[in-house]
Amino acid sequence: MDNVKLKQTSTFDFKQLNTTGMRAIVLFSALLESPKTIKELTHLYETNPFIRSVVSEDSMRNDINALRDAGCTISRASKHNMKYYLLDHPFNLELKPSHIKALKKIYNKFYADFSFEELFVIDDFLAKLVKYTKNEDSKNEIKSISKISNLDKELLKNLVHYSNNNNQIKIRYNSKNGLKEYDLIAQKVAFRHDKLYLFCIDMRYMKNSFYKVENILDIVNVNIKKSEEEIKPFVAKYKLLDVNEENYAFSDNEKLIEVSGNDLIIEATTDNDFIMMQNVLNFGSRCVVLEPLDFRNKIIDIIKKTREVYKNEK
Question: Which domain holds residue 289?
Answer without folding.
Answer: 234-312
